[in-house]
Amino acid sequence: MNQVIETILNHRSIRNFKEEKLSSDQVQMIVEAAQQASSSSNVMAYSIIGVTDQSLKNELYGISGHSHVKNNGHLFIFCGDLHRIHQLAQDHPNKDMEENMESTEQFIVATVDAALAAQNAAIASESMGLGICYIGSLRNDINRLNELLKLPEHVFPLFGLAVGYPDQNPEIKPRLPLEAIYHENQYLPFSEQQAHITTYDNEMQNYYESRSSNTKVDTWTDQMLRK
User: Fold this and answer.
1) 58-72, 81-95, 191-205: which has the minimum mean pLDDT?
2) pLDDT tens digits for 4-60?
3) Smallest Cα–Cα separation from 59: which of 125, 133, 150, 130?
4) Cβ-Cβ contacts under 8 Å for 221 (sequence gap 6 or more)
5) What CA–CA distances, in Å, run from 12 to 7, 130, 133, 174?
6) Which residues contact 184 (CB under 8 A, 6 or more apart)?
7) Spatial contact of 114 and 158, defined as CB atoms under 8 Å apart
């Protein structure tokens, strides 16, 4: 196993960080790693907003409700961004271009581009000995988030990425068995996946009951049904 794969397989979400900020060199390296992610047709339809202002972090905490939004080494917010292209097109008015810009396909392109860049950033951060946690709860009040970040038209916030020096060492959360995720040539009937999901439910129940913090009685299936 090489070091990259070892880093990936050792991933766990970190929600408690030490009071130490990332250096400008670290931030630059993480962003440059993000930029090297694959991008659909080289559109690079995303932007990354780094949040360093503590009062702004506190406002974002009010939206999210998660303390690691305000207590971290650095907070990145990933946005889908078609604004750059829209601005370039201002001298070339075209109805078809406008409709395409606001299509589901372009929304997906921007979202996937941002997600790929973010995962590069996450792996780069973890390879540097840092911890990370994705934050989707920033979308709890997306209009307020737009206002706080002063996002222009055709830019939409997707999620945050809290990065910092870990102040905890949580257990690695089990994942669904490979047999429930990986299909060859065609999608397998649910009946062939169900036994693997049951096995996973048992594993998750043991994990929740025995982990070092926030123990509870739960299974993956029960979580998904509640969600």
Assistant:
1) 81-95
2) 999 999 999 999 999 999 999 999 999 999 999 999 999 999 999 999 999 999 999
3) 150
4) 197, 201
5) 10, 11, 8, 10
6) none
7) yes
Spatial separation of the C-alpha atoms in residues 123 and 137, rounded to whole Å? 21
> Assign residue 205 a region: left if phi > 0, alpha if psi is -120 to 50, beta otherwise?
alpha
Grouping H, G, I as helix, E, B as strand and the rest as coil, residue 55 is helix
SS3 172: coil
**Residue whose C-alpha is closest to residue 142's, from 198, 52, 60:** 60
Retrieve residue 90's tokens: 């201002």
Q: Please tell me whether residue 156 adopts helix, strand or coil conformation.
A: strand
**Angle subtended at Cα 139 by Cα 200 and Cα 222, rounded to the nearest 5 degrees:** 25
H/E segment holding residue 100: helix 95-101
> Taken in order 128, 66, 207, 203, is the CA torsion positive or negative?
negative
Residue found under tokens 């409700």:
65
Coil vs helix vs strand at 4 = helix
Its pTM stands at: 0.94
